Amino acid sequence: TQLLEQSPQFLSIQEGENLTVYCNSSSVFSSLQWYRQEPGEGPVLLVTVVTGGEVKKLKRLTFQFGDARKDSSLHITAAQPGDTGLYLCAGALLSSGNTGKLIFGQGTTLQVKP
Amino acid sequence: NAGVTQTPKFRILKIGQSMTLQCTQDMNHNYMYWYRQDPGMGLKLIYYSVGAGITDKGEVPNGYNVSRSTTEDFPLRLELAAPSQTSVYFCASSYSSRGRFSNQPQHFGDGTRLSIL
Fold first, then answer.
1. What is the interface size between A and B, counted as CB pairs within 8 Å?
2. What are phi and psi of A96, to 5 degrees?
3. Do residue B103 and residue A48 have CB atoms under 8 angstroms apart?
4. How far is CA A60 from CA A20, A78, A83, B103, B116, in A?
5. Measuring CA to CA, how many Å separate B63 from each of A29, B56, B66, B72?
6. Residue A5 Cα to chain centre, angstroms
7. Cβ–Cβ of B45/A98 closer than 8 Å?
8. Is A43 an interface residue toward B (CB < 8 Å)?
9. Does B50 sit within 8 Å of A99, measured CB to CB?
């Protein structure tokens, strides 16, 4: 069973469309991070959210942390081919303390066609 | 800046062979992690370390061993390679936090692609 459920797992859209990726759990997290991974490379951090209800924007990307700190979403406005990649959410459980341990979702493979 | 460096990038092993995946970081991070990434499964934590001389198991430690003799290096050892260990392995490091919880970003290497035949 996956502690952090990410959906959808695959998304293929046209350039200019909007999309939302969801990350859900029944567990509470002290923080949640979103990473982006390109083929042949390791994940790279996009954002960290730590407060329930927090919203962060990174250009056309909007990240939200649920009020109860059990879920998060990533919304991309007017997707571009350069947004193509694997998006991963990762949460730090309260029980992990300050070890920095993360639980990763399964990932969402996004393809944006020109 | 080199960041996190993993070697080798690719390796093919026969069943029963052993090998060590190397990981080194030059950011003076106390925390280091080993993950495996399988298609559709995200990243699973194998082992982690919060400082030199300290290691602990993650979600999927069976079949692996680690050591942390220095801050910089965190090698992962496979003793008896099995087909189920075919995967992409990532090493990561992060800055240690003095607070109750850590929300520091993890910095990843580019991975080692390992096939067991």
1. 83
2. -80, -10
3. yes
4. 12, 7, 10, 23, 41
5. 29, 14, 11, 23
6. 11
7. no
8. yes
9. yes
pLDDT, average across residues B85-90? 98
Mutate to test the interface with A, among B106, B107, B110 (most CBs of A within 10 A): B106
**pLDDT tens per residue, range B7-45:** 999 999 999 999 999 999 999 999 999 999 998 788 999
Question: Would you place residue B99 in the very low, low, confident or very high pLDDT band (cuts 50, 70, 90)?
Answer: confident
Tokens 């970003």 correspond to what residue? Answer: B105
Interchain proximity A48–B105, CB inside 8 Å: yes
Q: At A32, which amino acid appears?
A: L
Q: H or E segment at B7?
A: strand B4-7
Residue A111 structure tokens:
């393809």
Residues of A in contact with B25 (CB under 8 A): none
Whether the Cβ atoms of residue B107 and residue B32 lie closer than 8 Å to each other? no
Give residue for tokens 């965190």: B74
**Which of helix, strand or coil describes residue A83?**
helix
